[in-house]
Every structure is written in structure tokens, then in C-alpha cells.
Amino acid sequence: MMKVRWSVIGVLLGAVVSTPGCSNKDEMRWKEQVWLSDGRRIDVERYSVALKSGFPNTTDGPPVYQEISYAPLGVHWSTRKGGAVPEMLSFDVMDGDAYLIIVPGDDFKDFCVGKPIGSYLIDVYRWRKGLMQKIDQHDAPI
Asked: Which of 43, 47, 52, 96 is the 20 to 30 Å CA partner of 26?
């Protein structure tokens, strides 16, 4: 009887060890159709990692990493810097340049220091000839 009990425990332990581990993160890759300001539609590649919110509700929690890519213009942006994850608001292509607008995930108390009145709490990135640069929001065609 004791031998059977240890055999059952051994089988159960083997099943638990061989079962894929549970992760506290959800990953997702998808294509997203973006409707541009000139009426065209393009497909961009997206990737996101979010924490699971946990017991008892296992819905998606906050994002911890994001990417967006648009190969025809050499666009690739990600949240590799660590800290709070910025929120992507808008992506557009104008006059051959790509623009991405995000809400920075950082502490906002220093954001407005040295900025003109009327500035939004956004960062604007432009891709020109495949090179990304952060530009002043007042220089962006928004």
C-alpha cells in the first residue's frame, strides 16, 4: 500500500514538473491597421507585454513593454528604457515622414519645466529617411 501511495505521488509530481510554468506576463503580437490623416490605411506591427493582474481576476494588468514597427519607412520604436511604460497615442505618415505621439510614462512633475505655455504632456518622434529623432511638439504637424 505504501509503495502504491509513493508511486501516485511520484506520478503527480512528474506531471506538475512537466507542466509548463505559469507566468505573470501576457505577450501579444499583432498587425494593426492605422488610418492616416490623408485617408490611407497602413498596417503596422505591434508587440506588447502586460502583467497579469492576479488573483482572483487574471485579466491583463499594466503594460510593461511595447513595440511598434512600420518597415516601409524604417520605423521601430520600443519602451526599452525601463521605468513606467509610455502610452502610444497616435501614428501618422505625412510627406514621407512617420510620426509617433506618446504620453511619457515618467514622472510628470518635471515635464513642463522650460516648455512654452500650451504644451501637451506628449513626446513626438519623427522618422526621416529611416532615422528616428525626438522633436519638439510645436515643430510637429499636429
From this structure: 43
